[in-house]
Amino acid sequence: MVPPRNVVKIAVQMRDAIPQLIQLDQAKPLAAVLKEVCDAWSLPHSERYALQFADGHRRYITENNRTEIKNGSILCLSTAPDLEAERLLRGLQSESCEGRREALQHLVLLAPDMTFTREVISRDGLQRLGSIIEDGDDLGEVLALALRAFLELMEHGVVSWETLSIPFVRKVVCYVNMNLMDASVQPLALGLLESVTLSSPALGQLVKSEVPLDRLLVHLQVMNQQLQTKAMALLTALLQGASAAERKHMLDYLWQRNLRQFIYKNIIHSAVPLGDEMAHHLYVLQALTLGLLEPRMRTPLDPYSQEQREQLQALRQAAFEPEGESLGTGLSADRRRSLCAREFRKLGFSVSDPYPAPCPCLKPGLLLFQRAGPFLSCLSPFPQNSNPAQDLERVPPGLLALDNMLYFSRHAPSAYSRFVLENSSREDKHECPFARSSIQLTVLLCELLHVGEPCSETAQDFSPMFFGQDQSFHELFCVSIQLLNKTWKEMRATQEDFDKVTQVVREQLARTLALKPSSLELFRTKVNALTYGEVLRLRQTERLHQEGTLAPPILELREKLKPELMGLIRQQRLLRLCEGTLFRKISSRRRQDKLWFCCLSPNHKVLQYGDVEEGVGPPAPESLPEQLPVADIRALLTGKDCPHVREKGSGKQNKDVCELAFSVSYDHGEEEAYLNFVAPSKREFHLWTDGLSALLGSPMGSEQTRLDLEQLLTMETKLRLLELENVPIPEQPPPVPPPPTNFNFCYDCSITEP
């Protein structure tokens, strides 16, 4: 008989007693269940007992979580949570250190349970633990257990961190700042201060003022992974609670103290594997450091700022003016302004503005005249529609794009000049605009690195190379802008392809960043190896994987289908030859209007051909005067191997003819003769060369055959797998069981059953 759905079969155990196997009715009150269990063991006062899960954290079972009990669960009978909390809190007041230590150990074990936590807090358990921590009579195991129990109880959120007293927090700070301290105490003290800092702004300021950054650096340099992790946690918590200006000041100080180099060498590349918690804190540190770029990213360029005009001018000079020379040397003012505007356009700046803003190279004395209106715009160094400042008024990336361009021009001057001058010498439609590319690339990098986005509470996606390089964002830009130029050339792009190029570069950067290269040089090597052709190949492979066409069983099925489908393609090609095609004759006077028709006989033994008139439909095969037996054909020639192509030379028109030309050589008496063709289209060329190859018993290797075969394979595979839709196909076939140890078994068919 099947038991009711709300009845589960479980075991209940108790120390020094025989376990009970019972059927627990979930509809019955928990107090009644406890009464039955206690009665079975002859235990009075069932209200003094409770049920706990025997495994894990030994959580108490209540009416709220009793649905977690499943068939086969093992429970244990223990003291009720209120009585257990009362007993342990009395133990904390024991005069003996051993009694307090034992009580704290049990408290730490039961603290993760919410039911027990409520009972402890309701009996002022946190205050009693706080007294042990503040007194600091024992700086060893007892203090560590008290801190751990306090943290576990507070993690439930029953009591707010803001209720902690200032003397209590200062006492915990003292444990962090002490030089000689038990190794188990300081990680717990750091963890407690981290929670205080994240939960209470007021107490967080106290922690920030009491715990110097140098002290945290000392903890980070101790070869204790737990202590390093908790020190990093408090450091990131302090940074998150600081204002933007304070955060910048703190990070600048930490970088000056070589924190980045220490993290890179002694934490990321440590012999001990990096823990998940440390990975999260490194992600937060990276995000906060990159967040310092957000103000520049959100600030548009001010066309009337003298400093920013000089920076734009420095960009132009670095690309076009040799060191020590000036644009105005030996030139009139109008000529100088015109040349300046043209050079900014070569840099890739292009906007439209009927009232030009001040030019970067405009002297302060001319500013008043330029602001006077369009009728004085001739005094501007730029003609209308040539103001570079407006390209950088877009936010994002704002001034961050200008910072990147300046960094590239100053720290990689040869690469910068090569980029600009190389594209200046190309045709207008093929040049890669440096400024436009830099602006878009800065936006792209900000998106990939999540600049300005709030930190995730669980993410661990930090980049090791960020800690291996000063000015990592600008250095990454320098590599990426050269990659963009390289990809632009590989794609043979024009101005209309700008968005396509940036999409490919985005994919190249995203794929390489996902590999988490450990250094900038390794990133450079990997991203340059990911060419445009490789990106296309990866896209195709991923598409096939998504369709499931690259699973080993599917590949095996496709191989089995190929011979049949190749036979189908061969049949189609021969039928196309039987239908015939009109070809144009090519003479020494180039293309003529004369046409001739060729087809294959229905029995596939003879090629029939002859001249036809313009405007007349295909003739009947039997009316064609010429015949060529297939048995006499020696070989099929294509392209430059054809005799009628060799006779034409190498003109541009003959190159087009070469791509469509094919010939068949055949025996004409004792001599070799040729029947020459020029197909009307590339498709006809593929169909005829495939058909003739099939007649000669050669493989059909045209591009059209490959496409047709792939299409037929895809369709046939999908048809065969219709019944397996949404059924996962294993990568490997199921293992074949080993043969039996002997084959001494048989069935005698002559014996008839009664």
From TrEMBL:
<dbReference type="InterPro" id="IPR006816">
    <property type="entry name" value="ELMO_dom"/>
</dbReference>
<dbReference type="GO" id="GO:0048870">
    <property type="term" value="P:cell motility"/>
</dbReference>
<dbReference type="InterPro" id="IPR016024">
    <property type="entry name" value="ARM-type_fold"/>
</dbReference>
<keyword id="KW-0729">SH3-binding</keyword>
<dbReference type="Pfam" id="PF16457">
    <property type="entry name" value="PH_12"/>
</dbReference>
<dbReference type="InterPro" id="IPR011993">
    <property type="entry name" value="PH-like_dom_sf"/>
</dbReference>
<dbReference type="GO" id="GO:0006915">
    <property type="term" value="P:apoptotic process"/>
</dbReference>
<keyword id="KW-0053">Apoptosis</keyword>
<dbReference type="GO" id="GO:0017124">
    <property type="term" value="F:SH3 domain binding"/>
</dbReference>
<dbReference type="GO" id="GO:0006909">
    <property type="term" value="P:phagocytosis"/>
</dbReference>
<dbReference type="InterPro" id="IPR050868">
    <property type="entry name" value="ELMO_domain-containing"/>
</dbReference>
<comment type="function">
    <text>Involved in cytoskeletal rearrangements required for phagocytosis of apoptotic cells and cell motility. Acts in association with DOCK1 and CRK. Was initially proposed to be required in complex with DOCK1 to activate Rac Rho small GTPases. May enhance the guanine nucleotide exchange factor (GEF) activity of DOCK1.</text>
</comment>
<dbReference type="InterPro" id="IPR011989">
    <property type="entry name" value="ARM-like"/>
</dbReference>
<feature type="domain" description="ELMO">
    <location>
        <begin position="307"/>
        <end position="513"/>
    </location>
</feature>
<dbReference type="InterPro" id="IPR001849">
    <property type="entry name" value="PH_domain"/>
</dbReference>
<dbReference type="Pfam" id="PF11841">
    <property type="entry name" value="ELMO_ARM"/>
</dbReference>
<dbReference type="Pfam" id="PF04727">
    <property type="entry name" value="ELMO_CED12"/>
</dbReference>
<dbReference type="GO" id="GO:0007015">
    <property type="term" value="P:actin filament organization"/>
</dbReference>
<keyword id="KW-0581">Phagocytosis</keyword>
<protein>
    <submittedName>
        <fullName>Engulfment and cell motility protein 3 isoform X2</fullName>
    </submittedName>
</protein>
<dbReference type="InterPro" id="IPR024574">
    <property type="entry name" value="ELMO_ARM"/>
</dbReference>
